[in-house]
Amino acid sequence: MIVLIGQLFSAQHWAHHSAFSLPEKRWDIGVFQPLRFGVSERMEFSIHPLLFSVMPNLSIKISQKNIGSWATASRYGSFYPTPLLNMLTHKGQFGMISPDLGPIPRLLGLYTDLLLTRALFTSTYLSIKTGLSLGISFNGLDQRTTIDLPLVYHRLGIFYNKWAVRFGADLTGNITKKLKYLVDADAHILPGFNGDLSLEHKGVLFWEINEHLRLLCGYKFVWARFPFGPQARMLPYIPIMETWVPFIDLQWSGTRK
């Protein structure tokens, strides 16, 4: 359960955050990846089906006017983690929040990003991004309900800190005709929060099996501050084995007729 929760919270961050939207009627989805759909040539919707029943979520990306050689886009999103957090509020196995502190109040997360992408070489693209997140609690939220896991702690930190900012850069390109790569670096900053910084880096290889299916394999490294001190971790991590394992996913794509 700990591995699953951490992976689900990080799933959207395995993708390439470029300013390019999917073409109209084009879709793609992975086991741990969000479902993306090109509504028009300028707009893309995204939801995470695996999370949706316990954490409703929606993201919209809209292409904007180019700035010189940079393609630009804005992204707006929201998520409602209360059902998931209440599922984890119990004693015993898989319990992460004490029931003495629950139930978790209604929480709404909102975020917006500015994305810029340009070609560096043939089939090699650089993307930079900056964003703002807001956390709204419709009732009092006990500070002791935090889940002190990499990625999870800082993603949910906005509900205790009220806001956060983030910056990042992605580089993607082709190694061969069927093999592609993605490397990135991101900083999540929660000013004034007890554990105010998460620095993250990932590397992913994409193997194009055919025009509709590809295999992803990668890792994520996180260095972050927590109330108990800084911690560095390779993800995904399996606690009972005390080891890191590669992130593996399958992604399907197609066009709606």
Q: Report the CATH topology name.
A: Porin
Determine the structural class based on helices, strands and strand pairing: mainly beta
- At the first level of CATH, what is the class? Mainly Beta
Task: Determine the N-to-C terminus distance.
Answer: 38 Å
Q: What is the helix/strand order?
A: HEEEHEEHEEHHEEEEEEEE
Fraction in beta strands: over 45%
Query: Main β-sheet, in a few words?
Result: 12 strands, antiparallel, barrel
User: So, CATH architecture?
Assistant: Beta Barrel
Question: In CATH, what is the homologous superfamily?
Answer: monomeric porin ompg
The portion of residues assigned to helices is 10-25%
Number of strands: 15
**Average of the residue pLDDT scores:** 89
Low-pLDDT regions: 1-15
How many separate domains? 1
Topology:
Layout: H1 2-10, E1 26-30, E2 35-38, E3 43-47, H2 49-52, E4 57-67, E5 70-79, H3 82-87, E6 107-121, E7 124-137, H4 152-156, H5 158-161, E8 163-174, E9 179-189, E10 197-210, E11 213-226, E12 229-235, E13 237-238, E14 243-244, E15 247-255
Antiparallel strand pairs: 1-2, 1-15, 2-3, 3-4, 4-5, 5-6, 6-7, 7-8, 8-9, 9-10, 10-11, 11-12, 11-15, 13-14
Descriptive report:
It is built from 5 helices and 15 strands. By secondary structure, the chain is mainly beta. It has a single domain, classed as Porin, CATH 2.40.160. Strand 1 and strand 2 form a beta hairpin. The longest helix is centred in the first third of the chain and has 9 residues. The N terminus is likely disordered.
Features:
mainly beta, Porin, two-stranded antiparallel sheet, disordered N terminus
